[in-house]
Amino acid sequence: GARPGQGGAGGGGPGRLTVGLCPQEEEFRWLLHDEVHAVLRQLQDILKEASLRFTLPCSGTGTEGPAKQENFILGSCSTDQVKGVLTLQGDALSQADVNLKIPRNNQLLHFAFREDKQWKLQQIQDARNHVSQAIYLLANRDESYQFRTGAEVLKLMDAVMLQLTRARNRLTTPATLTLPEIAASGLTRMFAPALPSDLLVNVYINLNKLCLTVYQLHALQPNSTKNFRPAGGAVLHSPGAMFEWGSQRLEVSHVHKVECVIPWLNDALVFFTVSLQLCQQLKDKISVFSSYWSYRPF
């Protein structure tokens, strides 16, 4: 775009000489005074959109109320052994309804959340908190704020990018859990009727997907000749993984994983990517100028 001081005959003239600004310096001033704030405005707009996805207003007004309930049907075409409906309300699972077909005896198990229970999805909660933190950092530097040096802009961009990277990582990197941790998690106690002792359930977010894993277990006999090696932490354990629970040694016999896409998490991840690109572009511009005057505090 046109920059101040570029008009007039040949863009030079005595005015510029008395001020003593060379073209690069004038361009840098313009960058600090105008373009930085334009980028910050753009970032705030994008991140407000992202945070709206997380709050999921219950009406079209955009005001925060109790989040609306959304039902997600889980199942995979490769197997019909597990089918389920999970109800998400903001960052909490408010209902879960799961059917599991056990092939060996063709038994059909059905379990659902107890009425009074909700399961917080910490990943969504944390991601939302990081977005709020990034918005707060940007709002602290409003239009009236004058950036004095490039270093100051770089510092702000790094702080915002750190929050956005953390928000994205919370969704893209589910926690690794050991099988005893899954067994001890409150999720196993959420169901009515209670889960049979040979089943474990885990729910997590991976990228834009809500994932439900059901582990079928069998007890290893005390005289079993199998070499017992407890499995470490994993996002998804494989059949054959072993662990000790109570006085029993158990092995995973079958693993059923079903998932579905949550469209608004997809949106949020796109907003994070675009915002991180904007921050990086601004940092690159500042760095180009800083290399002109390596002896100056830009």
UniProtKB/TrEMBL annotation:
Protein name: Protein rogdi homolog
Localisation: Cytoplasmic vesicle, Secretory vesicle, Synaptic vesicle
One GO term of the biological process aspect: neurogenesis
PANTHER family, alphabetized: LEUCINE ZIPPER CONTAINING TRANSCRIPTION FACTOR LZF1 (PTHR13618), PROTEIN ROGDI HOMOLOG (PTHR13618:SF1)
Record GO cellular component, one term: nuclear envelope
InterPro entries xref list: RAVE2/Rogdi
Family according to the record: Belongs to the rogdi family.
Main location: cytoplasm
Origin: domain of life: Eukaryota
Species: Panthera leo
